[in-house]
Design goal:
It is a single chain. Helices cover 24% and strands 34% of the residues. The chain has 322 residues and is of the alpha/beta class. α2 runs parallel beside α6 and α4 packs across α5. The chain is globular. The protein starts with a strand and ends in a 7-residue tail after the last helix.
Length: 322
């Protein structure tokens, strides 16, 4: 729907166990409320006529617009009475059905992965509020909102100001599929546990679509042997074991040693077969147990989220003062 901006704010992003094992700073509810509020103001200023906001147990969105005088319609999506990754996924699917022009996503790599699972090619402004943030960047919410409003009102058109992101497709035995945006790793473990991965010595194998040196998390490992930008085709396949040793920032303020036995670059749409036993970690979070004898087919594709370049959107804005 022309002029509609969706806002997905993960209430639990930035609050995982890595706050206890590293020096990562928590992102409080009040901080998120302020971010949403500034994004809303920016979106309306950019031309959004309608805002669709996800609800949650903490009522972050409702509190964010309290006492705001907005020249736009505001609606909230009904969600289950608990905070879950499925909420972000379902919200993205609803936004696709309603033809939302741009989606502001507040969260980390995991939140943006959830959005992609609901709407693979969603036009997003990715705002970092999580822990290990490789996919989203640190941006001021006011300008992020304004860029989303400009794109949603088709000034300028999305394809002039956005790049389509890579996505890691994972096909499991039995036909089930999963996705990751940054990295997919096999971890030497037998259960998902607390989900977050912060011990490099547990890693067995990894495929990274993004491997940039100036990042924190599992993907930074691959950047030591084969730096790969988010816009560069393909990815990197790393096998861990006896070999060259590196110390990498696996979480904010936390370094871990890893041993790389071998690696190779992957071209676009190349596939890798990863076999259990172990646990598959998607963008740094253990999610699927891969039993002995089971395998997963992993492919780096180039048909993921459309990521709006805020600088381009603002530069191409030719709108007059309303």
């Amino acid at each position: 729907m022309t002029g509609t901006v969706g806002i997905i704010a993960n209430p639990v992003a930035g609050k995982d166990i890595r706050r206890l094992v590293s020096s990562a700073s928590p992102v409080s509810d009040m901080a998120k409320i302020g971010i949403i509020r500034r994004a809303v103001v920016g979106a309306v200023e950019g031309g959004a006529e309608r805002l669709l906001i996800t609800d949650d147990c903490r009522a972050l969105g409702l509190r964010a617009i309290d006492e705001l005088s907005l020249d736009a319609e505001v609606a909230f999506l009904d969600t289950p009475p608990y905070d879950s990754a499925v909420n972000s996924q379902n919200a993205a699917a609803i936004f696709q059905q309603q033809d939302v022009g741009a989606v502001i996503v507040l969260g980390g790599d995991g939140t943006h992965r959830d959005v992609a699972k609901g709407w693979r090619t969603a036009p997003v402004v990715a705002v970092s509020t999580g822990t290990n943030n490789v996919f989203p960047r640190q941006v001021e919410a006011t300008i992020a909102g304004q860029a989303a409003g400009l794109v949603a009102s088709q000034k300028p058109p999305i394809h002039q100001v956005a790049d389509q992101a890579k996505i890691i497709d994972v096909e499991l035995d039995g036909g089930a599929t999963e996705q990751a945006l940054v990295d997919l790793a096999l971890v030497d473990d037998s259960f998902t546990g607390s989900r977050a991965v912060w011990n490099g010595q547990q890693l067995l194998e990894m495929v990274a679509a993004i491997a940039e040196r100036a990042t924190v998390g599992l993907s930074s490992i691959a950047s030591r042997v084969a730096p790969t930008s988010r816009h560069q085709p393909g990815g990197v396949h790393v096998i861990f074991g006896d070999g060259e040793r590196f110390r990498i920032p696996i979480a904010p303020g936390l370094f871990s040693e890893v041993d790389i036995a071998s690696w190779r670059r992957l071209q676009a749409n190349d596939s890798v077969e990863i076999s259990g036993p172990g646990v598959l970690s998607f963008d740094g979070e253990r999610d699927v147990v891969l039993a002995s004898g089971r395998s997963a087919r992993v492919t780096v594709s180039h048909d993921g989220l459309w990521v709006i370049d805020i600088e381009k959107a603002m530069s191409l804005d030719c709108g007059e003062v309303r």
